[in-house]
Transcription factor GAMYB
Amino acid sequence: MSHLTNESEDGMLSKDQTGSPLIDEGNSSGSAGGGIVLKKGPWTSSEDAILVEYVKKHGEGNWNAVQKHSGLFRCGKSCRLRWANHLRPNLKKGAFTAEEERLIIELHAKMGNKWARMAAHLPGRTDNEIKNYWNTRIKRRQRAGLPLYPPEVCFQALQESQQIQNTGGINGGDKVHHDLLQTNSYEIPDVILDGFKANQDAFPYVPDFPNLSTSSMLMKGFGSSQYCGFMAPTMHRQKRVRESPALFPGYNERNGIPLFDQIQDDTGDKIAQSFGLPYPFDPDPTNKDPLPFAGMQGSHALLNGNFSASKPISGPVKLELPSLQYLETDLGGWGTSSSPPPLLESVDAFIQSPPSGTVQLECLSPRNSGLLDALLHEAKTISSGKNHLSDKSANSSTVTPGDLADSCLNMCETEWEDYGDPISPLGHSTTSIFSECTPISASGSSLDEHPPSETFPGCNVKAEPVDQVWTPDGEKETSTQLDFSRPDVLLGSNWIDQSTGGPKDQAMMNDAVASLFSDDFGNNYKNMASGTPTSNQGWGLGCCAWNNLPPVCQMSELP
DNA sequence: AAAGTTATCAACCGCTATTCC
DNA sequence: TGGAATAGCGGTTGATAACTT
């Protein structure tokens, strides 16, 4: 049976087919030899029958042989895909059940875009289905201004992380998720890995730690654009701005009082219902499981630089996100709403949302680079001439905002020059980076843009020094446990270079981290907190110090 | 009713890892 | 050991149905 027959049978000939080139001559996609035109586009029922028959006879695999033996004018790749996604037995068709949806969300929180791995947990479902579902979902939720993950998942993640940390995930006693850490050839001290590993299960997008050297991990794992995921460059600003207020759904932008009818988006409700969540979430502060605020706390802890091991945050580690997902975290999320971001969103928001809520932080990690990309790069530069930060950052608890401000600013100003156009270490031209960082007009020129007055609404934020704000409990917790969500913990660790037995560029890392998280973010955030429009100074490299984020949203004042 | 928009699904493409020779 | 073949994965695109204006 020829493809012509098939086409005539179903009357289907895709656009691709008509223009399909001669596929062959050793094409790796597996066409048959002899210059045969392989068909593309939708499969016909007769083609399906041929393929099914072939697999019955010969079994799966050796897909390139299908064409030869069955006369099917399809490449092996296409045959495999068709079989896997549509023809193989025990495939489930139809919409995902609520349970499946819930599972997908959980799995995605743990695995990221590992569709095939996720599919393994969903019998009868294909990776393609899951992928499509997820991409649709994030679009939907983005449009609805809903967080990508339900608070439940975030809270669970936090709890798991906390539990892991409390049960020895830090000191290497309990190596969690070694299945995800299949190789151990990292040059990273165990203590660091443990810290990350401890969070890996709990925090979405914590990388699987592939076989990476320290530098490569730092260069890619942390800072990679896909992880820092800021606004996708292709997303229309109007859309972003329009959606931003609802990023942290459920809070009145003006007074911080839960206002859940703000998110009575049908889609969102359906989604929430789909995994059994009463969404919008019950924000009852008396709830002993302050779900919705877990992320918030974490995120604000992140911002104010006071971390509690009991309030772990994922840190700016975000892996394996599809590009679309970065749209999810909306520009201005911090600035336009105060409702608690879920874990990831909070982190994203932390990274990407300029304090003013008007700065595009896509500049931080547009493509294949990001925070630690810059960090390492900065470190090199710093170590070559600007090591004055080492001492301060090494002892993170003593670093003051002022200590870092100048340094960071200088760094931000000068390092970019060092990088030089057209390509920055972030994979951006400096020009493009800063152009992309151009703040959205504070006056809200965009059609749907919210006025600045709404940029930092909900929670009553006091821009106060951290040490005046953080609760004693938080300090206790912080003091009793290393918090590996903080880079400065890593700095504080005595890294031993396994090859040399000596210190492992600690100063370099100190500098880099300190510089990376230097004052600009804090300033911007402070301005955000105070409602003062800010510039986007220094955002090009995501400068904010973990210990240098004086402004803090007082948790006690959260709704 | 028509045009525009969005959602969904199916398929392709490029890349990487693995296997085979 | 290196290159080709194969398998698999994730991202993206295109077609079309459904929905909205």
